[in-house]
Design brief:
Elements lengths: L19 H13 L5 E5 L7 H7 L2 E6 L2 H11 L4 H4 L2 E4 L13 E4 L10 H12 L7 E7 L3 H4 L7 E8 L4 E13 L4 E12 L2 E13 L3 H10 L2 E7 L14 E8 L9
Parallel strand pairs: 1-2, 1-4, 2-3, 4-5
Antiparallel strand pairs: 5-11, 6-7, 7-8, 8-9, 10-11
Length: 267
């Protein structure tokens, strides 16, 4: 089973995603991106960001490597007004995709870029992205800002991420995580997510998937962007647009543009 593909848990992915600590990024994108802009979302998943943008009027294309996630998104689109049903979905690898056009805005929401675990993969991805940018295009790339106090204690098991109960049906959804391993040399972490459905106290369904995430510090991000031929326009430390202060250890949110000629690297 490939990590980060949500092969078995895609149907449960949306549950809990409306929690305030996760949903704060949606308003950020809606306020940042004009309703008339074309948008490419890399790692669109089940449409948590792409669908509200399309309903607002944006022309949206979404790519993802996980077919189960795209299937969930397609099911949602079938129930939406006509303008939202025009969302273009493609199963593509973010390291090597070509849609044959440019976009006004390209988004990597919530940890998507961190599915890439090596410098080579990140440069391949950004080179592909750069090929879809004009001089006016902007790229929004988000990562968590690593905290050693959290990474140093990595390895805890059976942590409850959230619990939600529908009192009418007696259905309770819980998600647990097992922190599998941490490789500080390669700056990689792995976690297993387990979803459990209980009805009136009885376990009726389970699904789990493993994720591997690479992490970068702000100074590493800036070096990566320069190598990829991208220039920094804004750096935010959270979705309220506060400036990025590395010591605060919240989010890293970068708004990037094309910078100079193509780097001319061989892949």
């Amino acid at each position: 089973m490939n990590p980060n593909h949500y092969e078995t848990s895609a149907a449960f992915y949306d549950e809990g995603n409306d929690r305030p600590d996760l949903a704060s990024d949606l308003e950020f994108y809606l306020s940042l991106i004009p309703a008339s802009a074309s948008v490419l979302e890399v790692g669109c998943g089940t449409g948590r960001i792409a669908l509200p943008l399309a309903l607002r009027g944006n022309s949206v294309t979404g790519i993802d490597l996980s077919q189960p996630m795209l299937d969930v998104f397609s099911g949602k689109l079938a129930k939406q007004p006509e303008r939202a049903r025009k969302v273009v979905l493609r199963r593509m690898d973010m390291k090597s995709f070509d849609l044959g056009r440019t976009f006004d805005w390209i988004l990597f929401p919530f940890r998507v870029f961190q599915a890439l675990g090596t410098l080579e993969e990140r440069l391949q991805c950004l080179e592909a992205v750069r090929g879809h940018m004009s001089a006016k295009s902007r790229l929004v790339l988000t990562l968590f800002n690593p905290r050693w106090e959290a990474l140093g204690n990595w390895g805890r098991k059976n942590l409850l991420d959230f619990e939600r109960t529908d009192k009418k049906t007696g259905r309770t959804m819980r998600r647990y995580q097992d922190q599998l391993w941490h490789d500080p040399e390669r700056q990689l972490i792995a976690v297993n997510l387990r979803y459990e459905v209980h009805v009136n106290g009885e376990l009726t369904q389970t699904a789990e998937d493993s994720l591997e995430l690479g992490y970068l510090f702000p100074e590493q991000c800036l070096g990566l962007f320069t190598s990829a031929g991208l220039g920094l326009e804004q750096a935010y430390g959270d979705y309220d647009r506060r400036p990025l202060v590395p010591e605060e250890k919240k989010e890293q949110i970068y708004v990037l543009k094309k910078a100079g000629p193509d780097p001319g690297r061989k892949t």
